[in-house]
Design goal:
The structure holds two protein chains of two kinds. By secondary structure, chain A is mostly helical. Chain A has 14 helices and four strands. Chain A has a two-stranded parallel ribbon. Chain A has a two-stranded parallel sheet with strand order 2-3. The radius of gyration of chain A is 21 Å and the shape is globular. Chain B has a five-stranded antiparallel β-sheet with strand order 4-3-2-1-5. In chain B, 6% of the residues lie in helices and 38% in strands. Chain B contains one helix and five strands, in the order E-E-E-H-E-E. Classes of the chains: A mainly alpha, B mainly beta. Chains A and B meet through strand 3 of A and helix 1 and strand 4 of B.
Chain lengths: 329, 79
């Protein structure tokens, strides 16, 4: 990941979008689902508060940051990542008889009436960043209380929680990077990946427990692939972690299926040559898609590890090309 | 095999994107039944197919591009 943060506003916008989405649409919807069923009430959660251990600030040597603002934003992004992982864990706890359509009703997917309000931030960059940091701390505390309540009420054991935490730590774009780098170097692995991705990545040693089915689609000189999930926001989460915030946004979903060529250009500044066919994959059921991008030119000398760092979440979705050269850590 | 997507599916318990309803496409892949996944849905939704559509057919724009959608059998009619 680049050590230079060029556009603070872009980073803040992504943080606000992600935070709002995961708090309101995913976490609070989960809390209200339990409340609706009566299995965990709001008061159960309040009771747990005195037992919640407040998280200490990170100890030890801090990475070197280029600016004061970057030193505020990077930890915020890391803390947001932790929050999101925590939400994914509580979501994964089974609640008994639930139908997916009821869950969608609750989050306001069918009827905006039920959607929980998202917060917007205004004022100077400094002020917004401080306010977001304060909010995130509050949200994390409540998430911790809810998690503790789940354990206390027997929905999840401490051991189960610990192993879920371990498993989820492994989900990240780095998995995608390693897979793509191996496919670029090893034609046999690439062939396996394209014919049976699930087995190929399992044998490669990456987690794929939750994803029902995975298909990897290859970019070539004549084909460029793009992935979307118009019905919800399906993504190979347990393999790749969290997608970029725009992936879940209606703007992206509507635009990419209406005019993919134009959308890639205007939203992502990615121009696909006229003779290259764009293939949009809409993950409408249980299959998840990942793009195998073209290997960038002049990368023959790079090691497999360096090649892996060229891969970004955007490139695995088809919204960007891989980086041209390794990022200096 | 050429197929047409139904305009609605009163029997089905799952959705399909609105933008392919009534449109014609080509079956690219047959995935069979995907079962055993408790977290996504509770009933068997029938065999799954990947159907390829021309962007021209979907969006009415002149294009060489394609859109591929995974559609369950009960949404399909032979063309």
């Amino acid at each position: 990941m680049s050590s230079h943060m060029h556009d603070y506003e872009d980073h803040i916008r992504a943080i606000v979008e992600d935070l709002g989405y995961w708090r309101a649409k995913r976490f609070e919807a989960t809390v209200f689902r339990f409340a609706r069923l009566g299995t965990i009430t709001l008061y159960d959660i309040v009771e747990t508060y005195p037992h919640v251990q407040l998280r200490a600030n990170p100890q030890g040597e801090q990475p070197h940051y280029e600016s004061e603002m970057e030193a505020k934003i990077r930890p915020l992004e890391i803390a947001l990542g932790d929050y999101i992982k925590g939400v994914m864990i509580v979501e994964s706890v089974p609640v008994g008889d639930v139908v997916i359509d009821d869950l969608r009703k609750e989050t306001g997917i069918y009827d905006k009436f039920f959607a929980i309000a998202k917060k917007s931030y205004s004022g100077s960059l400094d002020r917004r960043v401080d306010e977001i940091a304060t909010d995130l701390k509050k949200y994390q505390e409540f998430l911790d209380a809810f998690t503790l309540t789940l354990i206390r009420k027997g929905f999840m054991t401490e051991e189960e929680f610990a192993s879920k935490k371990e498993a989820i730590k492994k989900s990240s774009v780095e998995n995608g990077g390693r897979i793509v780098a191996r496919a670029w170097i090893d034609p046999h692995f690439k062939e396996q990946l394209l014919s049976n991705a699930r087995d190929a990545v399992r044998d490669f040693g990456t987690p794929l427990s939750g994803t029902p089915n995975l298909i990897v689609v290859e970019d070539t000189e004549s084909i460029h692939n793009v992935v979307v999930c118009t019905l919800c926001s399906c993504y190979p989460y347990d393999l790749l972690g969290n997608p970029p915030w725009w992936y879940k946004h209606d703007d992206y979903k509507k635009a990419i299926v209406n005019n993919p060529r134009e959308t890639l250009k205007t939203m992502f500044n990615l121009s696909i040559p006229d003779g290259v066919e764009i293939r949009v994959h809409d993950s409408t059921s249980d299959i998840r898609y990942m793009v195998l991008p073209k290997r960038p030119p002049n990368t023959e000398r790079l090691s497999e590890q360096e090649l892996a760092t060229l891969i970004t979440s955007e490139s695995l979705i088809g919204a960007a090309e891989p980086l041209k050269s390794p990022v200096v850590a | 095999m050429r197929v047409r997507i139904k305009k609605d599916n009163p029997g089905g318990t799952h959705r399909t994107p609105y933008y392919i309803m009534g449109k014609h496409g080509l079956i690219l892949n047959s995935h069979g039944l995907l079962t055993g996944y408790e977290f996504d849905h509770r009933e068997d939704w029938g065999p799954l197919y990947t159907v390829e559509f021309d962007m021209e057919e979907i969006a009415g724009i002149k294009s060489i591009d394609k859109i591929l959608v995974d559609v369950h059998e009960d949404w399909l009619e032979s063309d």
